[in-house]
Amino acid sequence: MTQPSDAGRSRDCDRREFLKATSALAAAGAMAHGLAAGRSEAAEPALAAVKSAPPAELAGCPAGYPADLPAAEVKRRFLELLGEFVQPSMPLRPAVTEEIELPGGVVRQRIEYDVARGDRVPAYHLFRRDLPADALGLLSIHGHGGSNIFPVGKAYHCHPKADDPLQYSYRAALAGFRVLAPDALLFGERQTRWGGNFPNEIVVHAELCSRGYSLAWKSVWDNSRALEMLEHLGARRLGVIGLSGGSTQGYILAAANEKVRAAACYASFATLRQQFYHYRLTHCLYHYIPGMVKAGIDWDQVVATAAPRGLFLERGGLDAGTPEPMYRAFVTAIEQRCAREHLPPSLMAFEEPQVAHAVTEPGLRAGLEFLRKYLARG
User: Fold this and answer.
1) pLDDT tier at 281 (50, 70, 90 boundaries)?
2) How many domains does the chain contain in total?
């Protein structure tokens, strides 16, 4: 029998050590995600292990990642990997199918519009009766969450509860924004029945990747059509708001589409270097564009290219699903870019030490005021 060479034995040893280390980190990361979902007692020891784990570069991160690049080059590489989204493939062909009046004088219309051949998106259009035609437009992206959000999608944040900050679609309309709240792919009226909520997302992401795209591209494509729908409804200055997976879609859209003048993003800030090689949390799939690590770019760099357009980033100190180093990377990247390129300050970092994965009343008020300020600019 042929004996392995010294080099082969060394590679096997390295591989075993790598797998051992990353398996431990993966288990701890999964437990940390459990803490974010409310399973705190079981997750506490693993979360402590994650927080004390070695730096990311010791857990398999490619040397020199992410690359030190000027913002323009980061943006170029990002858009090249993301794929074309600017030019629509067909007319929107909008239609209003239902209209009801909610408390506070808010009208909620159910509308439909086309984003691609055979792909018609249902959405809620919320506005006050007295709203001027050219009022500030706000794309409201629902959270990702679990089994409670997949079946309802857009409706999750549209309940007419004036004292509930989770109902940010309704609250934004009550505050005087023209709001469009669509169902994301696989949610609400766009659900599929292939095998469960998250497995469906995996299959769809895999199919998109096989065609050279990604779920991130699909979200940018669909949300760009939503911005066009807001323009069709009369809005000329556009922003975005979202929690969790809606936050992720929001900051990706802000980086990609310059129609977004400001974004209010609540939680779910992830960098690939910390996600893949340190925390390994179970996040939704919008973060994963094939080739980003190979291209040397990470999400903090990408989102910083949105400056000097407005970025409101909220994080709760008890949110284990949004580790502080990931959030801090976003904040630092944006601040450093503005300082380096002499851009006007564009970031509001809103941190709530005693809050978990949520939108709070102070957080929503601050976010809506931030959006109003940036969208009202000439």
Assistant:
1) confident
2) 2
Which of 90, 105, 144, 172 minimizes the C-alpha distance to 375? Answer: 172
Instruction: Tell me if 219 is assigned to some domain.
Output: yes
Residue 86 located in a structural domain: no
Q: Which domain holds residue 37?
A: 12-53
pLDDT above 60: residue 35: no
Q: Which pLDDT does position 197 carry in this prediction?
A: 66
pTM score: 0.86
**C-beta separation of 303 from 326 below 8 A:** no
Q: Where are the alpha helices (DSSP H) in the chain?
A: 6-36, 40-51, 71-82, 168-174, 197-210, 215-232, 245-256, 272-274, 292-295, 299-304, 324-340, 361-375
At CB < 8 A and 24+ separation, what contacts does 43-48 make?
43/320, 47/320
Cβ distance 248 to 284 under 8 Å? yes
Residues 25, 111 within the same domain: no
Residue 59 is assigned to a structural domain of this protein: no
